[in-house]
Amino acid sequence: MPFQQKFVITPRYLTTGSKRRSGKKINPDIKFIVAHDTGNPNSSASGNVRYYENSRNEMSASAHLFVDDKEIIECIPALTGPPEKAWHVLYGVPTDNQLFGFNANDAAIGVEYCYGDKINADESYARYVWLMALICFKFSLDPKNSVVGHSFLDPQRKTDPGTGLSHSRRTYDQLLKDIVMEYDFCTGKIPPPPKLINQNGTVRVTVKLNIRKGEPSTKVPVAEIVMPGSLLNYVGYVENSQSINGNAKWFKDANGNFFWSGGVVADS
Ligand SMILES: [Zn+2]
Q1: Which of 114, 211, 257, 261 could form a disulfide with 224 if both were Cys (CB 3.0 to 4.6 A apart)?
Q2: How many angstroms separate the Cα of 90 from the Cα of each of 3, 62, 105, 115?
Q3: How many A from CA of 150 to the centre of ligand 1?
Q4: Mean pLDDT of the chain
Q5: What share of the chain is helix, strand, coil (3-state, %, to 5)?
Q6: 150-196 pLDDT, tens per residue?
């Protein structure tokens, strides 16, 4: 079973034998993932890794991977080489041991989310979610219960990744759900969401037509029923959604609701 390779992971390892990269291997296995954010708005993946390298003998704090809207950079081997230890959670906190039976530094991969006004939140978030789903796949972890936020392990000192996610109009709970969904997409367990084509227009309704709430599907509730002869404006359409009578094209309206294209004709 393959995993969809949406993005590239670029190895840019810190100098080994330094404070930040000891070179010690994770042994025997990866048990979980710790979700972090950089805590430094607008700092990029490459900027963070450069900073780590330049200060590699000054501090021992580190993480395996940095994600921004353009790149995924691995600075401590995790996916692109035999996994090594990084120092991303204090050894003294108890929750990692209680939940997973290990200290995070000895058994978890640390992933850092880059955020800020100058970073495209959707692009950065898409890479962050995909990367953690990929790590679950690669190390046979259950995506439902193998990712934990840093703030969850160290609530006295840390607020990540919730702080960074809130800059992206997202929450920690949403992140955990999105990782599971991304895992299911990328392993082919569920089909990917239909791709929306943005295009405005008007159509005339030919049947008693149900406008569906939020999704192009008869499985979601009806938002409104429209009578034949009415005109409807649309802002986009999807072509590969639920098929009715062999027609899988649905229009999206300005409220974010959908109606089946088989119930309308071009307005002329
Ligand atoms: Zn953190």
Answers
A1: 211
A2: 32, 11, 8, 23
A3: 5
A4: 96
A5: 25, 25, 50
A6: 999 999 999 999 999 999 889 999 999 999 999 999 999 987 777 88
Q: In whole angstroms, give the CA distance from residue 30 to residue 25.
A: 11
Quick count: other Cβ atoms within 10 Å of Cβ 149? 23
Domains in the chain, please, with CATH? Answer: 10-186 (3.40.80.10), 197-266 (2.30.30.40)
Cα–Cα dist 228/210, whole Å:
11
183: which residues sit within 8 A by CB, 6+ positions away? 133, 136, 137, 143, 189
Residues 72 and 70: their CA atoms lie apart, in Å, by 7
Rounded to the nearest angstrom, the distance between the alpha carbon of 4 and the centre of ligand 1 is 27
pLDDT tens-digit readout, 45-74 = 999 999 999 999 999 999 999 999 999 999
H-assigned helices in 22-69 = 45-54
Spacing, Cα 86 to ligand 1 middle (Å): 12
β pairing state of 10-11 and 72-74: parallel
What is the distance in A from the centroid of ligand 1 to the CA of 27?
A: 22
Distance, CA of 142 to CA of 84 (rounded, Å): 21
Cα-to-centroid distance, 13 and ligand 1 (Å): 19
Ligand 1 center to 115 CA (angstroms) = 13
Q: What is the DSSP letter of 244?
A: B
